[in-house]
Design a protein that fits this description.
With 143 residues, the protein is mostly helical. The protein is built from seven helices and no strands. 69% of the residues lie in helices and 0% in strands. It folds into two domains: 49 residues, no CATH class; 68 residues, no CATH class.
Length: 143
C-alpha cells in the first residue's frame, strides 16, 4: 500500500473513531426530519401499517421486535417478487390490501438522501475541513 493510501485509510479510521462520522450522520438526519419528505414518509408508513393491522389485527399481539421486522421487510420488499409471499406467510390476505407499490418508501427516502448529500458543497467542505484538521494533528490516535 502506498503512503497516500495508508494516510487516507488512517484518516478514515480517525474520522470514525473520533465520532465525526456519527455526528455528521446525526446532523443529516436532523436536517432530514425538517423536510416535507420526512412527513410524507411517516404518512406512507403509517398508512401501510394501518392497512396491515386492519387486515390482521392479531399482529398487534406479536412481540414488538417481530412486528417491526415484519413491517420493515414489507417496506423493503415492496417492489419485489417476494413482497406478496412475505405478506401471505404472515397470514395477510393480499387481496384485501391496496397496491402498496404506490408507497415506494425506500425510493422516496433514497431520493431525499441523494439530493441532500450528492453534490453538496456544504457537506464536501465540512468533510475536507475535518480531514485537513486530522491530517495536521498527524494521526496521534493510531500509535
Amino acid at each position: 500500500m502506498s503512503s497516500n493510501e495508508e494516510d487516507a485509510k488512517t484518516l478514515e479510521v480517525l474520522y470514525k473513531r473520533r465520532g465525526y462520522f456519527d455526528a455528521k450522520r446525526d446532523e443529516l438526519l436532523q436536517q432530514f426530519k425538517q423536510t416535507d419528505t420526512h412527513a410524507q414518509l411517516l404518512e406512507m408508513i403509517k398508512s401501510i401499517v394501518d392497512e396491515i393491522v386492519q387486515t390482521k389485527p392479531e399482529l398487534l399481539l406479536k412481540n414488538k421486535g417481530q412486528l417491526a421486522a415484519l413491517i420493515e421487510g414489507i417496506i423493503l420488499r415492496q417492489n419485489s417478487a417476494a413482497h406478496e409471499s412475505s405478506l401471505t406467510n404472515f397470514g395477510i390476505d393480499v387481496s384485501k390490501l391496496s397496491n402498496h407499490d404506490n408507497y415506494d418508501v425506500y425510493q422516496l427516502f433514497e431520493k431525499q438522501v441523494k439530493s441532500s448529500t450528492e453534490g453538496s458543497e456544504e457537506l464536501r467542505n465540512s468533510l475536507i475541513q475535518t480531514l485537513h484538521t486530522l491530517r495536521r494533528e498527524k494521526l496521534p490516535d493510531l500509535t
